[in-house]
């Protein structure tokens, strides 16, 4: 079946290979072939071509080959990375899960952090969740090396200037749950944001676990395991994404 022309990065995303951004990186790195020839960034295809990404064929040129949508909730352990590049020799989240179909992470959770992360084969879902302007909530439990004071919590909630990133964080919600423990609800995902915020105030994070993304909670999911997002969770997630527009 011949499709209307589509950008190659979008095609790879829809086929469950990776996000559009990752697709562009792979294309630029010469890891994507179209009909046996290296692809170029911005290239458009019709879908009847033979596409190979990182040595593996993508889709089925005759049928369109779009995979059945998959959305997994994973409890990532410490020491696992959320990138599928070979820059970090640590095991990555896709290798850990070993799901029988192509899936890739939605966003990041740094190597030293643990907790909830999504794996999916839906590129458009990745794009919609990652749009920080939609104010999608993510909740974390954080442990620090000093007593959590009211002053500390207030400054965190108000937003902090992060010199390294040249940005002021958005207001957030803090709930103190122990002498050296608090919950934080963020609506943005800056690089190592919570750690940087704490460091700005003279604190050091000793443990960090993400327990919720929007309406999906980590719950009792054991470390290193995963489950499929339920139909009800998926329906609510889609409604929240739609409202976020």
Outline type:
elongated
Helix content: 10-25%
Strand content: 25-35%
Order of helices and strands: EHHEEEEEEHEEHEHEEEEHEEEH
Mean pLDDT across all amino acids: 87
Poorly predicted ranges: none
How many strands appear in the DSSP assignment? 17
Largest sheet: 9 strands, mixed
Question: Structural class of the secondary elements?
Answer: alpha+beta
**SS summary, helix count:** 7
Radius of gyration equals: 20 Å
Instruction: Please give the alpha-carbon distance between the first and last residues.
Output: 33 Å
Offer a concise description of the structure.
With 245 residues, this protein is α+β, with helices and mostly antiparallel strands. The protein has helices spanning 8-14, 20-28, 93-97, 123-130, 150-158, 193-200, 231-244, and strands at residues 6-7, 32-34, 37-38, 44-45, 51-53, 56-58, 71-76, 104-105, 114-120, 138-144, 161-162, 167-168, 173-178, 181-186, 205-213, 216-217, 226-228.
Structure in words:
It is a single chain. It is built from 7 helices and 17 strands. It is an alpha+beta fold and 245 residues long. Strands 7, 8, 9, 10, 13, 14, 15, 16 and 17 form a 9-stranded mixed β-sheet that branches. The chain has a 4-stranded antiparallel β-sheet with strand order 3-2-5-6. The protein has a two-stranded antiparallel ribbon with strand order 1-4. The protein starts with 5 loop residues before the first strand and ends with a helix. The mean pLDDT is 87.
């Amino acid at each position: 079946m011949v499709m209307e022309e589509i950008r190659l990065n979008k095609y790879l995303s829809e086929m469950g290979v990776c996000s559009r951004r990752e697709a562009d990186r792979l294309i630029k790195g010469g890891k994507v072939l179209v009909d046996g020839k290296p692809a170029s960034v911005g290239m458009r295809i019709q879908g009847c071509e033979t596409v190979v990404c990182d040595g593996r064929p993508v889709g089925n040129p005759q049928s369109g080959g779009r995979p059945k949508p998959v959305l997994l909730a994973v409890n990532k352990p410490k020491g696992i990375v959320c990138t599928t590049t070979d820059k970090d020799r640590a095991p990555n989240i896709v290798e850990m899960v070993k799901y029988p179909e192509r899936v890739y992470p939605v966003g990041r959770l740094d190597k030293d952090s643990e907790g909830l992360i999504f794996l999916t084969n839906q590129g458009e879902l990745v794009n919609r969740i990652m749009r920080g302007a939609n104010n999608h909530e993510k909740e974390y439990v954080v442990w620090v090396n000093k007593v959590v004071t009211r002053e500390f919590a207030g400054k965190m909630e108000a937003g902090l200037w992060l010199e390294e990133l040249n940005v002021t964080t958005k207001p957030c919600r803090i709930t103190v749950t122990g002498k050296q423990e608090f919950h934080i609800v963020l609506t943005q995902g800056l690089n190592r944001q919570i750690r940087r915020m704490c460091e700005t105030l003279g604190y050091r994070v000793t443990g960090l676990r993400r327990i919720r993304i929007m309406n999906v909670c980590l719950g009792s999911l054991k470390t290193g395991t995963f489950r499929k997002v339920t139909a009800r969770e998926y329906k609510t997630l889609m409604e929240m994404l739609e409202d976020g527009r």
